[in-house]
Write a structure and sequence with these properties.
- The protein has about 625 residues and is an alpha/beta fold.
- The protein has a 6-stranded mixed beta sheet with strand order 6-7-8-3-9-10, with helices on both faces. The protein has a 4-stranded antiparallel beta sheet with strand order 2-1-4-5, sandwiched between helices. It has a two-stranded antiparallel sheet with strand order 11-14.
- The chain folds into 2 domains: about 25-110 and about 190-320, Rossmann fold (3-Layer(aba) Sandwich), CATH 3.40.50; about 345-630, no CATH class.
- It is built from 23 helices and 14 strands.
- The longest helix has about 30 residues, at about 440-470.
- The protein starts with about 30 loop residues before the first strand and ends with a helix.
- Keywords: ATP-binding, Membrane, Nucleotide-binding, Transmembrane, Transmembrane helix, Transport.
- It is a multi-pass membrane protein.
- One of its GO terms (molecular function) is ABC-type transporter activity.
- Belongs to the ABC transporter superfamily. ABCG family. Eye pigment precursor importer (TC 3.A.1.204) subfamily.
Length: about 625
């Protein structure tokens, strides 16, 4: 069937022949992908039942079926993201491989784009290569990236950002092709895609599938893609079809032979001038049938017809023959190829790459830190002008105290603004972890390293504006002490965000939990209720590991421990709100204010140690969550 017409003469050429195909993509050793009696169930509910298949290099398989038929489950099993209900290994060249070896030969492309919007296609491929391979020269890496851009029809868009909330980037089809390129840059032999045409119009879907067919044939790869209701032109691009319904196989074979199979085996004729894909989906979907019983009976007959068909018997024989051949040494090709593949980068290299990638994202995407910096700058101006040029008098003591609480507590509270940026990083990590690129340790270290300079910058900007406007202790030592505690405050607050958002990777839930936790810390940090009057439960359960407690306490000591304030002079003499040893001089020693809270200088080293422990604790908790999640 002819391809759909396009009104755009500038539509990019989709075949890999449009550019030089990098040599490392070409498969010369993998001869088959097989699976037999593959099943999966949740509790006692079967999701996929006894699926069998055989694919050869250069073939493109369409996995089709109505919603809930088990398509995504099959893809997750084939990529070994899920374990089958019974021992049913996925075989390459008839051989079951260890998971790390298997992952080096396969790649999974998820339905949602695992792309960073602030990066360009060239940068996306460059970082993907650095994360997955080591031991190749810069020249060779650059040649691989440029070769893939040409092969995937993305040369003209090589330096265009993928797309962010503030800047439009690639089209939907270009993003899908880039998503595939990002996974195949390491030269996998099997590529598995979940709904690669989802969200695209008919033309865009056809172009993506046409490209996948060319990629498979040009490089001798095996490509598996689930697809929902393709057009006739798109359907005809596939080499083979696996049709599922309610987790059971109804057909596995060539696309061109599906009509003959249904006519000869079941007496069902695909009407002329009807999209065969739509017809097949209609026959296997009983959700909207008027006569449920008749539809159910037809569905069972289709499934049992497949089980007793000659096509099914031939498939079982071929799968068994591949496994038998492997016992005679056919697996050596895959193993030898795997030994010659690029080495995995070490932990230090992965962390440096992630930091570099995140740094580019952070300064291009305002959501990451730009909005937060603007917000904190505005907050500093507001705070400095509300508590403007407070004099060193007793009337300013309570405003100074309120300002210290507000400056420390509200800044940590506003760390909730980091939730959306971190969740984007988390989703990227989850996908790349499932593809075996890196784990929780690299993610935790890189996230901390890339965020720390920005938090220090925020601390400096906020302090330069608000500290001097409010007229806190006017010495360089006091200023930098204030900056230091504000910096630790933000480090702890961001660690809390990372932990909560990793535990519950939902924007609404993580936002609510972080806000609640900061509200709790503000309540028990010692400002609203002095430590001496805070009841035993809140004091011993929460107060002593409240990071805001140590920030507030040391900021109070920084302001009051070495400063004196003038009392009010009246007709009756001098009236001091706090009685200290300087009352006879009509002055208040700042330590008298601290005595109300039970604060004394001299414990800064211990408090810094506790703060570092809290910061480390949050990061460790976040690491454990990432480590334990599958």
């Amino acid at each position: 069937m002819n391809a759909p017409s396009s009104s755009s003469s500038s539509s990019p050429k989709m075949d890999p022949e449009s550019g030089p195909s990098p040599s490392h993509l070409k498969n010369t050793t993998l001869t088959s992908l097989t699976w037999s009696s593959l099943s999966h169930a949740i509790s006692t509910t079967p999701i996929l039942t006894s699926s069998t298949g055989l694919l050869r290099p250069g073939e493109l398989l369409a996995v089709m079926g109505p919603s809930g038929s088990g398509k995504t489950t099959l893809l997750n099993l084939l990529s070994r993201r899920l374990s089958p209900s019974s021992p049913s290994p996925i075989l390459l060249n008839g051989t079951p491989l260890p998971l790390p070896q298997f992952q080096s030969l396969t790649r999974f492309v998820e339905q949602t784009d695992s792309l960073i919007g602030a990066l360009t296609p060239r940068e996306t491929l460059h970082f993907a290569s650095r994360l997955s391979s080591a031991g190749i020269s810069k020249k060779e890496r650059r040649e691989r990236v440029e070769g893939l851009l040409g092969s995937f029809g993305l040369v003209e868009q090589g330096d265009v950002v993928v797309g962010t909330v503030t800047k439009k980037g690639l089209s939907g089809g270009q993003k899908r092709r880039l998503g595939v390129a990002k996974e195949v840059i390491t030269g996998p032999r099997v590529v598995i895609l979940d709904e690669p045409t989802s969200g695209l119009d008919g033309r865009g879907g056809w172009e993506v599938v046409k490209f996948l067919r060319g990629l498979a044939r040009e490089n001798n790869l095996i490509i598996v893609a689930s697809i929902h209701q393709p057009s006739t032109a798109t359907f005809d691009l596939f080499d083979k079809l696996l049709l599922l319904s309610e987790g059971k196989t109804h057909y596995f074979g060539s696309v061109e032979g599906v009509g003959g199979y249904y006519e000869s085996q079941l007496g069902m004729v695909i009407p002329r001038h009807v999209n065969p894909a739509e017809w097949l989906l209609e026959q296997t979907n009983i959700d909207y049938a008027d006569d449920k019983e008749a539809a159910r009976a037809r569905l069972e007959e289709m499934q049992s017809g497949w089980e007793r068909s000659d096509l099914k018997k031939k498939l079982d024989e071929d799968v068994a023959a591949v496994a038998a051949g492997a016992e005679k040494g056919g697996d050596e090709l895959v193993l030898g190829d795997d030994e010659a593949r690029d080495k995995k980068p070490g932990m230090a290299s992965v962390v440096v790459t992630l930091v570099h990638r995140s740094f580019i994202k952070s300064y291009r995407d305002v959501v990451a830190y730009g909005i937060r910096l603007a917000m904190y700058t505005g907050l500093a101006i507001m705070m400095g002008t509300v508590w403007l040029r407070l004099p060193a008098t007793q009337d300013s003591i309570i405003p100074f105290t309120n300002s210290i609480f507000y400056g420390s507590a509200f800044l940590s509270f506003m760390a909730v603004a980091y939730c959306p940026a971190y969740l984007e990083d988390y989703n990227q990590y989850a996908k790349e972890k499932r593809n075996g690129l890196y784990g929780a340790t690299a993610m935790t270290l890189s996230n901390f390293l890339v965020g720390t300079p920005y938090l220090f910058l925020i601390s400096i900007v906020f302090s330069v504006i608000s500290y001097w406007l409010s007229n806190f202790q006017p010495t360089a030592k006091a200023f930098f002490t204030w900056v230091f505690w504000l910096f630790l405050d933000l480090l702890a607050a961001e660690g809390l965000v990372v932990f909560m958002a990793s535990l519950f990777p939902s924007f609404v839930i993580s936002l609510a939990l972080v806000a609640f936790a900061n509200g709790l810390w503000m309540s028990v940090d010692g400002f609203m209720v002095p430590p001496g009057t805070l009841n035993v439960f809140w004091k011993y359960v929460f107060h002593y590991w409240d990071y805001q407690k140590y920030v507030f306490e040391n900021m109070m000591i920084n302001e009051f421990s070495e400063r004196v304030y003038t009392c009010a002079e009246t007709a009756d003499g001098c009236q001091c709100m706090w009685q200290t040893d300087l009352a006879d001089q009509c002055l208040i020693r700042g330590q008298g204010v601290l005595d109300q809270y039970g604060y004394k200088p001299g414990y800064m080293g211990k408090d810094v140690g506790i703060m570092l422990a809290i910061i480390f604790g949050y990061r460790l908790a976040g690491w454990l969550v990432l480590k334990l999640k599958k």
